[in-house]
């Protein structure tokens, strides 16, 4: 009985260690803000191309779309950290009180970015710009409900 109990607590500790790369809530906050910072830098450059303020380059655009598609997979686990609702964060409490609503928006964002990465890799400029417009709506939609300005 005692041995069994000990074993199960070892398993629990092991899974916890694997499940989260963050030692402190601040680490999780910094991680998710960094992911969004990288998303925004790439997205901003893409927007400049779409608006014609920078020369259109389908290859560069497709590469950035690939980057942000991957980056968009990263923030979720850094929100799913106890205590990361406090401190140097603009995350609204609604993220945790309405977790399904928040992760729903995140999932839609990820889907639209995967679509953008696919379409842009096929090389059609018009279709790429259209998919960019769809993806761009996600930023404001989520920030309005879940991020302090
Ligand atoms: C599903 C919700 C969601 C979507 C979609 C989303 N964001 Fe955010 N974003 C957040 C939240 C929440 C924060 C606040 C994170 C924090 O401070 O802990 C944030 C923070 C940021 C930040 C600030 C990072 C920092 O260093 O403080 C930038 C920039 C940003 N987002 C840009 C974007 C852009 C650009 C898009 C669209 C391409 C986007 N976000 C899409 C939820 C979202």
From TrEMBL:
This is Hypothetical cytochrome c. Heme c binds at residues 139, 142-143. Keywords: Electron transport, Heme, Iron, Metal-binding, Signal, Transport. Binds 1 heme group per subunit. The keyword Electron transport applies. GO terms for biological process: electron transport chain. GO terms for cellular component: periplasmic space. It comes from Photobacterium profundum (strain SS9). It comes from the Bacteria. One of its GO terms (molecular function) is electron transfer activity. Residues 1-19 form the signal peptide. It holds the Pfam family Cytochrom_C_2.
């Amino acid at each position: 009985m005692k041995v069994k109990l000990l074993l199960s607590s070892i398993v629990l500790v092991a899974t916890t260690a694997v499940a989260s790369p963050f030692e402190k809530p601040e680490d999780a906050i910094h991680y998710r803000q960094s992911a969004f910072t990288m998303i925004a830098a790439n997205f901003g450059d893409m927007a400049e191309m779409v608006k014609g303020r920078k020369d259109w380059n389908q290859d560069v655009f497709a590469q950035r779309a690939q980057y942000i598609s991957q980056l968009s997979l990263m923030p979720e686990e850094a929100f799913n950290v106890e205590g990361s609702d406090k401190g140097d964060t603009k995350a609204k409490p609604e993220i945790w009180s309405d977790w399904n609503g928040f992760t729903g928006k995140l999932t839609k964002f990820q889907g639209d970015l995967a679509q953008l990465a696919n379409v842009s890799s096929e090389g059609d400029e018009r279709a790429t710009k259209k998919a960019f417009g769809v993806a761009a709506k996600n930023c404001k939609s989520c920030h309005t409900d879940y991020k302090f300005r």
